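[Meeting: bench + compute handoff]

Bench side (C.D.) handed over the final construct sequence. Compute side (W.E.) agreed to return the predicted structure before the next meeting so the bench team could plan truncations. Sequence as handed over:
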Amino acid sequence: TFRDYAQGAFRMRGVGCGQTIRLFVPPEISKRLHQQAGVGRADSFAMASPQPPLAPALGRDQRCFLCDTCAWLVLNSIAAEAVQFRLLCQHSMRNVWRKAAFRRLLQISNAPAVSCPPEAAQLMEVFCERLAHDVLNCLPSLETTEALLEREKMDYINVLTKAKVRLEDSEHEVLKSVQRQAIDCSLDSVANGGLEMAEREFSSEQVQEQEEQHEE
């Protein structure tokens, strides 16, 4: 991302006073940079070109190459923020269901009872995030953000329904609003031509987050 690139440059206190920065661009990154820069300039030749040109050494072309590099890094930053936003939407929706389950658990704890009712154990499932360790023998199918949120919605609603928990009208509105924002963010990725990459980054970010929570 541009932040990583800028952080590395800012640590060099003598840039412009003897220190210089040299970029090493692998061929696969050069190809993506060339195509994305072509999209930004509406350059049909650059978008369709299978082989990007070599990085220029001097002059105006070098300035254009550096501008394209910064633009590509900014695009990566935007994509990373979009992934984080979809994760935030997912957590916001989970928080609604957990608050409803917590209200019911408080009611159960305040009621006189000899033993813990079975619905309490069901409600505790709302607060657990299971980490699967299954290793598939084929590539898993890509699940879109919309499908993921809808699947989680049905799973949590089934658990709350079995425990006789009803959501308030305001909570239903929050769920609809957050889910709509997450879907709109995914549609923006489609418009930018990076849906599959964004969904894979979102999926990998989820797995990494679950692993970190499991370790804690």
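W.E. noted at the follow-up: The chain has a mean pLDDT of 76. C.D. will use this when planning the next construct.
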